[in-house]
């Protein structure tokens, strides 16, 4: 089945360009286009998209607040949000992820990378490119805040190891290789961790790991 993509950007030409790109992929289709954050929330409910490609600065309701509303709606539990913006700032990165976004990209991303990013977040992986991730770590350590989900103290030693590797950007296959596990076992551990921490996706696992101090800046991958 095709990945159902909703595009939210206040610039008509940008939406048109993204739509052409998405429709060029055999495994994707555009199911709606929104010019404001409020329209994005409404269309997310109506079109049942798998992923919303969300701009941040939009009229009426910005992309971060729109992301927060989508993430908080139980009827939209399966909808992922991929933030794609020109404004690659510390505040935007932190706020987008805390609002429930599963990924953050800037608009100078290459077309093929954008399509891969859509596939990544739909598959349940967090998409955090190296630059934003490094600043995200530093931001959490400078200004720690209370976690919005459960803490890692409820996890087993093995689960804490897995969470650490998730926070460092490893996928399930890489986690399995690092810990000498099968890919299925690694996937099962990640799923159990998400359940215990009440995390929506891997992006929230990353946030918990950094907020709790389980992973610290400078720790190698």
Q: Which features characterize this protein?
A:
221 residues, Arc Repressor Mutant, subunit A, 10 helices, 13% strand, globular
In short:
This protein has 221 residues and is α/β, with parallel strands linked by helices. Helices cover 51% and strands 13% of the residues. Mean pLDDT is 83; it is low at 144-149.
Helix and strand arrangement:
Elements: E1 3-8, H1 12-23, E2 28-34, H2 37-47, E3 51-54, H3 63-72, E4 80-85, H4 90-99, E5 103-106, H5 111-122, E6 127-128, H6 130-142, H7 157-167, H8 172-179, H9 183-197, H10 202-211
Parallel strand pairs: 1-2, 1-3, 3-4, 4-5, 5-6
Helix pairs in contact: 2-3, 3-4, 7-9, 7-10, 8-9
Helix content: 40-55%
Would you identify the CATH H-level superfamily of the largest domain? Response regulator
C-alpha end-to-end distance: 34 Å
Categorize the overall geometry: globular
Q: Which structural class should the secondary elements be placed in?
A: alpha/beta
According to CATH, what is the topology of the largest domain? Rossmann fold
Whole-number tally of structural domains: 2
With helices defined by DSSP (H or I, 4 residues minimum), what is the helix count?
10
Largest sheet, strands/sense/barrel: 6 strands, parallel
Mean pLDDT: 83
Write down the CATH class of the largest domain: Alpha Beta
Strand order of the largest sheet: 2-1-3-4-5-6
Protein name: Response regulator transcription factor
Modified residues (4-aspartylphosphate): 55
Pfam family, one: GerE
Domain HTH luxR-type: 148-213
